[in-house]
Specification:
The chain is α+β, with helices and mostly antiparallel strands and about 250 residues long. The model has no long low-confidence stretch (mean pLDDT about 85).
């Protein structure tokens, strides 16, 4: 799990620094539109509240957020998006789950299939690898942002009281996991305590990992980046573990 988690954190930080905002903003707007179909009030729609928080963290303009919600509710014209998952195996036998939000399933499927074939991967049927993952909420707190506000031990105690079921302390960050239904309570509770949150989202946590090194690991990371770059792809989940120094090297190239 550590490899995938580290990769997700690096990718998230790159997104915040990305100068090519158009593609990222488009993904965030689609996420908001999808979530808003279940209700336009973030106070009553936890998925929408989380999508809006992520959009704000990436500096998506307020008017873009409002426009996305209005398109979802029909106040403004716009495409109708739906969610779909694709599963399979990538380089090194790593299990892959790809989450898309699209207005054209045929286009999304063709693009994903092309990337899998390019890297000698294989797409499978629904359920072929999803059993290797568990849906979880995750809150990431950077230690340097926490300094002077709350001790790490106290944060862990508070997080457990708010519904966390797993806490992992890393060198620079603290990862707090919970059941999806508890994510909103956890986020709001930590915010009330003045805890600065680096990342809040629903994710798929692998229950076991495949360790890769060298060229095979580099090929896997390039494959994941290529998938993530596709127009309809929102998230890519994978059960890999690779050396941290390689993750940093590839992410900065």
């Amino acid at each position: 799990m550590s490899g995938h988690s580290k990769w997700a954190n690096i990718k998230y930080r790159k997104e915040k620094q990305d100068q090519k905002k158009g593609k990222l903003f488009s993904k965030l707007a689609k996420e908001i539109m999808l979530a808003a179909r279940a209700g336009a009030d973030p106070e009553k729609n936890a998925a929408l509240a989380n999508a809006i928080e992520r959009a704000k963290a990436a500096n998506l303009p307020k008017e873009n957020i409002e426009r996305a919600i209005k398109r979802a509710t029909g106040e403004l014209p716009g495409a109708k998006y739906e969610e779909a998952f694709y599963e399979g195996y990538g380089p090194g036998g790593v299990a892959i789950m790809v989450r898309v939000v699209t207005d054209n399933r045929n286009r999304a499927a063709a693009a994903i299939r092309h990337v899998f074939e390019e890297f000698d991967g294989s797409l499978g049927e629904a359920g072929s690898v999803s059993w290797l993952f568990e849906r979880k909420g995750i809150v990431v707190v950077r230690k340097e942002a926490l300094a002077g506000k709350l001790a790490v031990d106290d944060l862990m105690i508070e997080a457990i009281d708010l519904g966390a079921d797993d806490i992992q302390e890393k060198e620079e960050e603290i990862e707090i996991y919970c059941q999806p239904s508890a994510l909103r309570t956890l986020r709001e509770g930590l915010e009330k305590l003045g805890v600065p949150l680096e990342r809040v989202e629903l994710t798929m946590v692998p229950q076991s990992t495949v360790h890769l090194e060298g060229k095979e690991a580099e090929r896997l990371l390039k494959f994941l980046d290529r998938l993530d770059d596709q127009e309809d792809v929102q998230e890519v989940y994978a059960n890999f573990d690779v050396p941290d120094e390689l993750l940093e090297k590839v992410s900065s190239s």
